[in-house]
Amino acid sequence: MDDEATVPLYYENRIPEVQLENEHFTEEFEEIIEESIMDEEQEKKLEREFARQYHIITRDDRLEKIAEDIVSHFVNRGYQGKAMVVSIDKPTAVKMYDKVQKHWKDYIEKLKRDLNSSKNIEEKKELEEKIKYMEETDMAVVVSGEQNEAERFNKLGLDIMLHRRRMVKEDLATKFKVPDDPFRMVFVCAMWMTGFDVQPLSTIYLDKPMKNHTLMQTIARANRVFKDKPNGLIADYVGIFRDLQKALAIYGTSSGGGIEPGDTPVRPKEELIKALEKAINETRTFSKGKGIELEKILQAEALYKIKYIDDAVDAILVDEDTKRKYISLSGNVRKLFRAILPDPVAGNYKEICDLINVVADKIRSLSPDVDISEVMEKVEDLLDRSIKAKGYVIREHREKYGSDYIDLSKINFEELKRRFIRGRKHIEAERLRGAINSKLNKLIRLNKLRINLLEKLNKLIEDYNSGAINVEIFFDKLLVLAKELNEEEKRGIAENLSEEELSVFDLLYRLDLNQNEKKQVKLAAKHLIEVLKKEKFVLDWRKRQQTRASVLITIRDVLDKELPRSYTPEIYQQKCDLVYQHIYDSYYGAAKSLYASLM
Q1: Domain's final residue, options 234, 264, 294
Q2: Are 269 and 9 in contact (CB under 8 A)?
Q3: Which residue has the higher pLDDT, 272 or 68?
Q4: Which of 46, 206, 499, 543 is most exposed by smallest CB count within 10 Å?
């Protein structure tokens, strides 16, 4: 965990949820079911103990409650990923599959009833997404085969052949490892519990007594690092914690000499809740140091909440370090809050976590790297969900006061300046900076020679963050740069060139050209793009040496014929190389190019 090679594991005792006491699960029973070869004494012990303990674990009403709990728990996990349900034996694994399937369908029907009765647009959207997720989710049983298994399972009222056909025909192991595959829950009893790495696996539902190495191997299925997966969760239905402590004492360190108290790689879920409390307090303390009272915002009426949230955003945007620190703190709060779901205790922290996230999302929406319409919609929805007042709609307030992001192509510089003067200056500066950065990213992707404009922006930001210029000067210089970007965006129209023709023209251009030579270079750029698109950009042209050579020869031929004679052989060769590299980077095949995707 220290090296970030694994994510932390948390333990959650779900036994009270299904009203099963742990007093029956003796160490002798665990030893018996772990043994594959038993002597006469062990067999007698098995007869005495196994019937009693096995029937407790496999009681139908108990399994029913566990199945219902698994459905509710998994569907409401903040980070869902994939799940593994571990049962005591093969018949019980099949039973659990059948029961989870039944409760899964019941839960979908409940959500559909809620959807039909809901009047809240955002709530309807969430319900529709959850229903879609559940209807898409695939589950499977994965158990080893045995002789006469069909007959054995039939006697128990179970159909193993339905599952066996899937195990034979489908590559279930590969499907389970693919993050986006809808195969999200697997039912096992022994298979896939050792040496089977599934990075998106986040939850293990344990309903099988086990100990020592087998237990350690099983829980380790959930500690693999994957994207934003915050942790692995062990949901325990049989009271395994005592044996977990023993196993960790043996296998918890490389030396096998045990571990120090509090240094266990598997922690009670209560520690996860404490970590969330700590993250919230750290964010609260940091915010207070910037003059932001989160409690004051929470207690305010809805209309004032909006004002206080904007004040908070403005205070955080005072410099890049403050902004970066708050985003980091809020990200930790968000991750930990999602990790404790669906624990009922999450409700105690929802309001403060929502507020922290609203502020962070508003900050992110001001400085987009791509199209932010979706981000803005999410911020608005989060505000609507988090801050309610009877008869008052927050989105109307935002629309009235024009807090939308800036479209540089339609910018009114005078109005923008007036809004800066009468508004929150750091927010307005950040919004303009974000719009410029978004526009610049697109312009530079279309034409790499515009990199000098990005250097101007970075120098401005550096001066502002260092205190060399104040927010007023920073905003004025951003306005100048915004005007320059607008002019650059329109330059192709002024030159009577498309964006892709302009990119080639800029690569070929020289400052010492006269007007006639400049016209020649324009025609060369136009003709070259026309010929290449019409004749040379075949499917996957970059993958074959012959098609790559054909493109390069075409570039050389066109430029040799059409560039002005003032281009020396050295300059001509340099321009050919630059243009070829640009073409290779920007055009992928027939009708596929950077320009087709961005324009």
Answers
A1: 264
A2: no
A3: 68
A4: 543
